[in-house]
Design goal:
The complex is a heterodimer of chains A (607) and B (209). By secondary structure, chain A is of the alpha/beta class. In chain A, 36% of the residues lie in helices and 15% in strands. In chain A, helix 7 packs antiparallel against helix 8, helix 10 packs parallel to helix 11 and helix 16 packs across helix 17. The chains are: A alpha/beta (607), B alpha+beta (209). Bound molecules: iron/sulfur cluster.
Chain lengths: 607, 209
Amino acid sequence: MFEKILNAVQKPTRYIGGEYGAVYKNPAEVKIRFCMCFPDLYEVGMSHLGMRILYHLKNTREDTWCERAFMPWDDMAAEMEKHNMPLFALESRDPLGDFDMLGFSLQYEMSYTNVLEMLRLARIPLRSADRTEGFPFVCAGGSCAMNPEPMADFIDFFIIGEGEEVNMEILDAYGEWKDSGKPKAAFLETVAGIAGVYVPSFYEPVFDGDRQTAVRRLHPAAPEKVKKRIVEDMDKCYFPETQIVPYGEIVHDRISLEMFRGCIRGCRFCQAGMIYRPVRERSPERLLELAEKLIAQTGYEEISLLSLSTSDYSCLAPFTEKLLDMTEEKKISLALPSLRIDNFSMELMQRIQKVRKTGLTFAPEAGTQRMRDVINKGITEENVLESARIAFAGGYKNIKLYFMIGLPYETDEDVAGIPLLAKKVVDVAYELPKQKGEKPVQITASVSSFVPKPHTPFQWEAQNTAAQLRDKQRILCETVRSKRLTINYHESKLSVLEGVFARGDRRLGAVLEKAVGLGCRFDGWSEHFDFNRWQKAFADCGVEMERYTRARETDELLPWEVIDCGVSRTFLLRERDRAQKGEVTPNCREKCSGCGAAAWKAGVCHA
Amino acid sequence: MHKYIVRYSKRGDAKFVSHLDFLRLIQRAMRRAELPLKFSEGFNPHPCLSFAHPLGVGITGERELFEVELTAPCPALAAQLAPKMPRGIEIVEAVPCEKNRFSAVSRAEYTVLPETLPTADQLDAFMKKTEILTEKKTKSGVKTADIRPDIFDARIEDGTLFLRLATGSQANLKPSTVMDAMGEHIPGYTPGFCRYTRLRLTDAENKEI
Ligand code: SF4
């Protein structure tokens, strides 16, 4: 029957497993069956490094077999329903309902509907309260777990922060609980005591109108605040030396080498820059060792360096030198994303791609200096133009510039500054001496809509409405015209919903359930996104989106403040204040700003 | 230059791996095996491989083959490569070869396991037709063609249907097209869901490539 199903779908390799590096065990010989669930397509999920790390980590345990499940595309979901086949894990093909524990990766708010849909396809009750004894535990982690409340009705427990250590502690506890024969509640009591675990059913939020006013703790095992976990020493931290090599091309089909976690910069809009503090680097020696092993084990022809900001790695020059010696010899290509454009990086790029000149990307984020100071993006217009000069001189023709609109304290002038700056980049190309027959440059400004995120200095700010965003998009298009300049912007309604769930509270659980019932899924995919359905779901539940997009008072309890991400409220408020004044805060290497992350004895704070 | 012909089987779910993905898969397996590979020139050097004739998605392959170029002799090629393969792909043998005969491919042998086999009489009648017009999917769209000249053999053997079909650059007939045609031209016969296996590729004299 499975064969018949596979014959009827578009990309059967999404569903078959068995890739090189996939882990197979005898189910009779393990005590714990875990399934990592990624609420998006296989090619998206398999491109996520965290998913790969935790998969192999859990499989290092003899008592555990960790498998994978992804959200099936429409054709597959329809075939499975037609043949009455519940959602299954790729390796054993056993239905998810047979597992001990399911672990969802929450990387994007607009994939929440897919989490619910995956449970529905697996015929597992959506709400934790309805999953009686015998159903698997459902846990979740990932950056979206930093505000667990919108998903709190569906998830038994959340893992907050980096998972390498805490996942193992949870599995230890599970093994013991399974032997004990105690009811499910006993296991939840135990994990609630593990640092970094949030069990939502032990907390009851209290609401008054739009606001959440308090949280009642219902169980003595539940800590007042759940502090995120981090790995203190990146060199000692587990990193899989064997990895799965998918058949079909996935989004990031290469080796990802994680250089460091965190970011020294402190851009005020950026959640990653706050929640992954402090910066902790892997040593060049460890990275080279991993690179060599991964190249040999996977056979991949490309390796990519992963971090929030490649240029900030402290020994980038000597490290890339050695890495290139290795990759050139082995005929492996090297990708360096999020690299600042300067003379060093141009030399590096020359060495990497001796002939081909692909496009470059650059992220000024805002169009005017005032706005860049507000968001603490420590670059000047001259930096941008100089980078462009270097890139054009180096023979690059296509430059993509990333910007945001809808930022706090933004004026129409700031919005107009975006196309004006992009046009100045075009003009830089005209100033340079021309060679005959040379191709003209092409500049793309990609403009996304800002979404205020929890645990950032902008968490209190009002989010722009779809109408406001549309007005700003109009300014983008009408300010300058140039054949050499293309301006792209995103669907503003999607950003609004993203913001609703990013800063949502527990009352959104009902809306999510409703939306899934109305057919919402794959909401991050434009061919699926249907705002009308969402409007209906909100209306049916009597919930207004404005409740979540509004400005928050600083004396208000924020729904995600049950989570302690290591950065203090005082610091966030101080940063917000500086943003209002347009004051720039130095990066962690120039001067510590006392954000609170130094409480861990790790990384840049103690360098 | 040291050329080798590698013969392999592609069974189980691996049959769903498309030819393009399979090419990438073999290239990576070659790198994993740390062989003295000869690389192509260009920005993205890749191992020099060539396949005899692509196997359609969903078809099991018993004795498929490709050629690889190495910079040094490698007598243990098969043994080195075998453990580097994903599930379902097995290396049958690897033999040195001066010049491959891939251009001589003109036929392929298949076994088909349909839900219902045609009876011997039904098959006989089908094969006695001088012309079998059916819809054939080609690169340029669907067109009606006479497929009878491209069916060299069709018989029932050990509860499966054996087919010998034109394959290669001159003429190419997919076994599923034959099964569709049987459903269309044999009165009262519906093959239902079919499983296909390509046994081997041969030249015009039915000698294995
Ligand atoms: S404590 Fe200081 S150095 Fe450490 S992350 Fe915070 S601001 Fe940066």
